[in-house]
Design a protein that fits this description.
The chain has 364 residues and is of the alpha/beta class. It has two domains: 88 residues, no CATH class; 230 residues, 2-enoyl-CoA Hydratase, Chain A, domain 1. Helix content is 32%, strand content 20%. The strands form two sheets. Strands 1, 2, 6, 7, 8, 9, 12 and 13 form an eight-stranded antiparallel beta sheet that branches. A hairpin with a 2-residue loop joins strand 7 and strand 8. Helix 2 runs parallel beside helix 4, helix 3 packs antiparallel against helix 4 and helix 6 runs parallel beside helix 7. About 9% of the residues have low confidence.
C-alpha cells in the first residue's frame, strides 16, 4: 500500500494548456541522437540521462496523478521534450518537470533534489552530512494559561525516519500528559507555524486530544482510505504509520473544549491536523484560512536519487466530506502584526487570534 505524505511546495506555477488536449506525438529518440551525436557526444550522454529522468517522472505522473484522466499526456510529453532539448542545459530536467506541473495547474506536487530527498528519508548512505534535529522538526511548545487552559504547538516534520517520528509522537503525548496533570479540559492547539511535512507523527502525538476513531480520509476515484488514531498509533487504513514507544496517554477529561489556531502558514500536513478537528463537537477553528494544499502526495524515487512528490488523492474530514482548497475557520480572525510586548504568560499581547481563543474557552 502506497504511503501518502503531505509535503510543502514553495513554488509558483504557470497556467495549464494541456488539461484537455489528448493528441500529439512523442519526439523520436533516434532523431535526437542524430541531431547531437556529430557535435558533442558528451552532451548527448548528458541529455540522454536528463531525458530518462523526464521519462520516469512523466510515467509516474501518467499512472498515478489524481487528475490524470483530464490530461493530454502525449501533448504534454511532446512539449516537455522539446523544452528540454532546446534549453541548452543538461541540468534542466528538474526545471522541465516543474514546468509540467505548472501546465497542469498543480501546486502541491514537486521534485525533491537528491540531497534533500536523502535528508527527508534520513538515508544516511546518501546524506552528505547528518542534519540537526532542529532542521527536521519544528518547535514543540506547551504551557498552562489562565483559568487552567493549556496551550501547545504541533510542529512541522520534515523526515520519515521511524525513530525520529516516534520521538516526536512521544514528545507530544508526554507534553499533553504533563499539562493534563492539572485536570485540564480546555486546550488551544496552535498550527499557525505548521508548514507541513509528515503528518503521521503529528497525528500519533495529538491523539489523546483527538480520541480514538477516524479523523479523515484519503479519497481517490477508486477508493476511500480512513485516516485514524487508535491507542497511540496513527493509521492509514489498516496500516500503522507511526506509534508512540510506550503506553499511550489518555486525558483525564473525556469531554474537552478545543480551539485550533490556523493561518496561511498552516500547510499540507498541518491542514490534515486542522481538518481532523474541523466540525467536531466542542472544537472550533480560529484564525485565517489555511494555505489550501488539502490533497495528499505519494513519493517516487527517480534514477538520480531525486524524489517525485506527486499528488495522488484528495482529503476529506471525519464525516467523509471532501475538502476543496483552504480550510476556513469557524471564526475568521486576521492576525495583527506581531509586536515586541509579551504578557506574563510569555505570548504576544497583540496576538489577537490567541486572545480570542482564550476568551472563548473562558466563557465555556
Amino acid at each position: 500500500m502506497r504511503r501518502y505524505t503531505v509535503i510543502l511546495l514553495a513554488a509558483l506555477f504557470l497556467h495549464s494548456s494541456y488539461l484537455y488536449s489528448r493528441d500529439g506525438l512523442r519526439p523520436d529518440d533516434a532523431d535526437i541522437a542524430v541531431r547531437y551525436s556529430r557535435s558533442d557526444t558528451g552532451r548527448l550522454s548528458c541529455l540522454q540521462k536528463a531525458d530518462q529522468l523526464l521519462d520516469e517522472a512523466l510515467s509516474f505522473m501518467e499512472k498515478n496523478y489524481y487528475r490524470k484522466d483530464a490530461v493530454g499526456w502525449s501533448d504534454l510529453t511532446t512539449a516537455a521534450k522539446a523544452r528540454l532539448y532546446s534549453s541548452g542545459s543538461c541540468e534542466d530536467a528538474y526545471g522541465v518537470i516543474s514546468w509540467c506541473f505548472g501546465q497542469l495547474n498543480e501546486t502541491h506536487s514537486f521534485l525533491m533534489p537528491p540531497e534533500k530527498a536523502s535528508r527527508y528519508n534520513y538515508d544516511t548512505a546518501e546524506m552528505q552530512q547528518t542534519p540537526a534535529l532542529t532542521e527536521l522538526v519544528g518547535e514543540i511548545k506547551g504551557e498552562l494559561l489562565e483559568d487552567s487552559i493549556a496551550y501547545l504547538t504541533i510542529p512541522w516534520v520534515s523526515t520519515t525516519d521511524s525513530l525520529i517520528c516516534m520521538r516526536i509522537a512521544d514528545s507530544l503525548q508526554e507534553l499533553i500528559a504533563r499539562l493534563d496533570t492539572r485536570g485540564i479540559s480546555k486546550w488551544i492547539i496552535d498550527l499557525r507555524k505548521n508548514t507541513g511535512g509528515n503528518c503521521w507523527p503529528m497525528l500519533a502525538g495529538i491523539g489523546p486530544l483527538l480520541g480514538n476513531g477516524i479523523c479523515g480520509y484519503f479519497v481517490s476515484a477508486n477508493e476511500r482510505i480512513p485516516i485514524a488514531y487508535r491507542d497511540g498509533a496513527a493509521f492509514q487504513g489498516r496500516h500503522v504509520r507511526c506509534r508512540v514507544s510506550n503506553n499511550c496517554y489518555e486525558t483525564r477529561h473525556a469531554s474537552k473544549s478545543i480551539v485550533v489556531l490556523t493561518g496561511r502558514k498552516t500547510v499540507s500536513a498541518g491542514e490534515i491536523i486542522a481538518l481532523a478537528f474541523k466540525g467536531r463537537e466542542q472544537a472550533a477553528l480560529y484564525g485565517e484560512p489555511t494555505a489550501g494544499l488539502t490533497t495528499a502526495n505519494a513519493t517516487y524515487t527517480l534514477s538520480d536519487h531525486s524524489m517525485l512528490v506527486l499528488t495522488v488523492c484528495q482529503e476529506a474530514d471525519h464525516t467523509g466530506r471532501i475538502c476543496e482548497g483552504s480550510i476556513v475557520p469557524d471564526k475568521i480572525i486576521f492576525a495583527d502584526k506581531p509586536g515586541p510586548a509579551v504578557d506574563s504568560h510569555g505570548y504576544a499581547q497583540d496576538d489577537n487570534v490567541k486572545i480570542a481563543a482564550l476568551n472563548w474557552l473562558k466563557s465555556r
